[in-house]
Amino acid sequence: MVPHLVTALTGPISELEQRILESVPAVERWFRLEWMEHTPPFYSSVDVRNAGYKVAPVDTNLFPGGWNNLSPEMLPLAVQAAMAAIEKICPEARNLLLIPENHTRNNFYLANVVQLRRIFQAAGLNVRIGSINPEITEDTLVRLPGGEELLLEPVIRSKYRLGLKNFDPCTILLNNDLSAGTPGILEDIHEQFLLPPLHAGWSVRRKSHHFKAYEEVAKRFGKMLGIDPWLINPVFGHAGNVSFAQGQGIEALQETVHTVLGKIRRKYKEYGIAEKPFVAIKADNGTYGMGVMMVQDAAELASINRRTKNKMSVIKDGQQLSDLLIQEGVPTIETIQGATAEPVVYMMDRYVVGGFYRTHASKGADENLNAPGATFLPLAFEPEHILDAQGHPTEPLPNRFYMYGVIGRLAMLAASYELEQTNPEAEVY
Amino acid sequence: MVPHLVTALTGPISELEQRILESVPAVERWFRLEWMEHTPPFYSSVDVRNAGYKVAPVDTNLFPGGWNNLSPEMLPLAVQAAMAAIEKICPEARNLLLIPENHTRNNFYLANVVQLRRIFQAAGLNVRIGSINPEITEDTLVRLPGGEELLLEPVIRSKYRLGLKNFDPCTILLNNDLSAGTPGILEDIHEQFLLPPLHAGWSVRRKSHHFKAYEEVAKRFGKMLGIDPWLINPVFGHAGNVSFAQGQGIEALQETVHTVLGKIRRKYKEYGIAEKPFVAIKADNGTYGMGVMMVQDAAELASINRRTKNKMSVIKDGQQLSDLLIQEGVPTIETIQGATAEPVVYMMDRYVVGGFYRTHASKGADENLNAPGATFLPLAFEPEHILDAQGHPTEPLPNRFYMYGVIGRLAMLAASYELEQTNPEAEVY
Fold it and tell me: Does A179 share its domain with A76?
């Protein structure tokens, strides 16, 4: 089930949404059976784009920030889901060490850390924050504008365990996506639960692996529901060894872009969609919306300017960009107060616990909204009925957040497939 | 974790409550470990009495009605917990048959059935309502004052399975406490999940078994927390073969009452409590607050009037009363708008999903509130902070519903012990 949140959608319900809404029992049962075979990621968030004719995930985050953007009513759901996750993985847990990103001056990010601490404390754990930032060499108290305090403590590594001064956790929760590579201090920890596993970090993870797994999930789900998987799956391709700065690998990239655009064009024709196809070219290992460009024609890549070259060369934490995902661009039909919007779905264990809209006033429906200037709009719970003029409840309102919750969970399931396939310890069995 | 609900408590936090609030991680871990060994009842509700010096469960219901009294904000929590319960017990479930009580004209009860249907539908099941009322021989559509419709369908029994016309459920959820005995139509169902099991019905279940199990739970929890178990455990005794109508078994009953009152008196002395001890005499297999009387002195039982005799002779569904529980009376310090109040805690699987106050304007702090004239007051979620005059959040508010959630879960755990001990199929292993 997916909480009933107020979406900005007011238009008619599309055929796809109708199909999903009338199939709730079958959809939920399908997920239940999948979770018997696969372990959901500990937590995740998924950016979803709804083009009306299709709805698809465009990014799946296994170290979600932004928990502070969920409305307060959703906290109990997140806590209950956190309890379920802890119970399953490490019921004996007492102490949880939360390892945040290294940027210690971003108050929005730190508010997210405070919210995660709140969730796991309410779930019944002693939570402390351990920094792996080399600059944090002593206890550092940060006071946030909201009045909250956050104590960042330097982690202490012994031969087999990671902890803090006078704090020996049984579970270590990473909220640091390891873009800069897996630090040695996190390696060879076998006595403690390290969540998510290290190979979920962006120094190992590849978007193209994720969307390959998602393609498989979409096919199986589409078959169950009796729909063309393309309606929930963005076409994609992959190009390696690309350097915009040195003009290397551009031709192969153009070829892939051309192929992906062709596939989209055929689908648009099949469904009578009049829009102009485009692709998002993204760092295969990138995050934070960095290293993303939109292209309508492969020829554009022959003459990109210096600024774009720079943008496409270096991503988060100074990583060089060389592997690229070429993903079908899915326009968004959602707007809020005139700003382009896309839903972000938050999950803890197998449960959808909330969501919000990412909005951007100066970006179009076919642009990347995860860019400077984006704002976040928490979603409220929708009352199940609206009262009519006589004060009687009307027909129950459809849960229009449900479809987004389904897409979010499909992407989460794909992440679960992906982590199984890329598990370095899998050969042991 | 327990949702943070607004309680009526405004007085200072008692030593006991303080002890519980400062031990959240230890308490939650203790429950997690218990649930590794024991299976929680599918759903339950617990009446709790808070005397200030002690807090105790006084009744544990394994077929909870009153789900309609939970506030709408709690629905998502109940749904998420229902998903967890279904996933664990019968992940392959598609169809759920809900069997309600036989009273088909009680709109309050029927609103509860509608709410349960809503919860399990949102959890992703096809839900239909099957009546075992012999008067329901054809489909009966009931329209509730709120505009909701409820279709009661007669159940159909085949040799091995129970269902409805064109509806073969894999799971049967009882919301009928089987006070009148287990109907043959529910017996020998081995292919379908029947929840809760038949031996949870009041024709088999005994309050004295429950409170014996609760005593054990309270001892173990008290030891972990370092508190006297009496602070959370009502003293009790049991008397069998009592007939008030025929004056039978009264002396033995008086002796038990005397013993229980003596135990309470000693505890009152130990803690310097000035109140007058009393006991609640209750049908050992009763429910609905029927067959309950309060006694301060065993001598009172020698001269009870005809009206009380009648009250104590027949309970729900015309069952004869003969086995009695003699339970320490726990006064309630909670009042709402001048009416005496007691919290009722609702649980689904191992999770506290909500609660409400049962209030009664014409009953005292030492009386049974589960009586005609009682009203129900849904509890709202408490914001975590109150804003000060400058609009800044103050210190986090303590979750005063937490303690009630702990007591509710201790009673639920006791029910789990009780059902294990009374399981007729347990010898098989």
Answer: yes
